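Posting this for the archive.
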Amino acid sequence: MKTQSPTVLFVSHDASRTGAPIFLLRFLHWLREYRQIPFQILVGSSGDMLPEFESVGHTELFVPKPTPLDRILRRLKVGTPEDSDHKSSLRKRLAESNVGLVYCNTIVNGKILDFLSFLNCPVICHVHELEQVIRLNSDETSLGLVKRFAPSFIAVSHAVKQNLVTNHGIPEDKIRVIHGFIPTGESKQTEIAQAHSDVRRELRIPAEARVVCACGSIEPRKGTDLFLQVAERVSELYKNKGPVHFIWVGGGLEQVTAMRKHVNSLSHRNTIHFIGHRKDVSSYYDASDVFLLPSREDPFPLVMMEAALRKKAIVCFDHAGGAPEFVERDAGFVVPGLDVNKMAERVVDLLTSAELRNHMGAVARQKVLDRHDISICAPKISAIIHHELLVREARVLGA
């Protein structure tokens, strides 16, 4: 049975607890509470956050949860009858849902957009990726499908927009920049002193030690190797001023285990902590003095805004994505190139001066509140969706 109003179909490439799905889930919660726009969700493949997507709206899987036999057949690159049956029934359900707009949350959904082409409706592609991730997760065919079916794009930073224009030939006037955002109202301002004590007790960090925090998956793109180099250099530069410890939050068990083994070979092994995934990272931000963002490529990281909300100055690299657009000259330091020594020096500047890091941290928090709160940015996306639905309705009535 068709709904009275057109439905927006939100497409997430998967349900992993990573930046783009987290961003979409937060936006959908906001949309359900503040806008009367009916929607449903199509998730490319299952993941940790699938129950959370299901809790916010009707959710379908593009690739069903595999059985043990499915896993073997897919490893052998052999299709299964269940694949065909699932796609057929999914197509039927979507055809009956009066989908008026497809909102594609990432540029790596080309195959899904191809499948959805029978809906014959407008497509908005919200791009959270820069070139390394695009090339890693898409081939030319998939990218071609996105450009064919998505006439309208939203980029999470100017760096992302420039990459779309330069490397993928997408016209500038087809791309709107809406910077990333977070729900600041949900942030519980925990007692900093309590977090300071709890984290140090957990990781056996001396009470008087300074702490540098980083957060993200463990991979070259996120600069995990550069984090270690900065940690070693900062430890040398700061050694006469007191102890300094380094925490990396995030990463799967296998990666964390490998990093811990590698850290054991370093001279400052006792001051570098890889702690894996934490559902609530706020206490680690509160317990730290500086937030380090050593990424080689990061479109507009949510963790940067989350740390800034906790009044942490940010140290990042230029030409590594959207972070410099946030940090600018007053919310931390933007280090030229991938200069590990310069990054270490800027970290030491912040560790040495409480006045400097407190001032920059306060500026960073205010930027999040003024520019990157969900209540400020989500309505901009909602307005684009509403406009596209109105244009579609006018075309249908005029047909």
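The chain has a mean pLDDT of 91. The longest helix spans residues 374-398.
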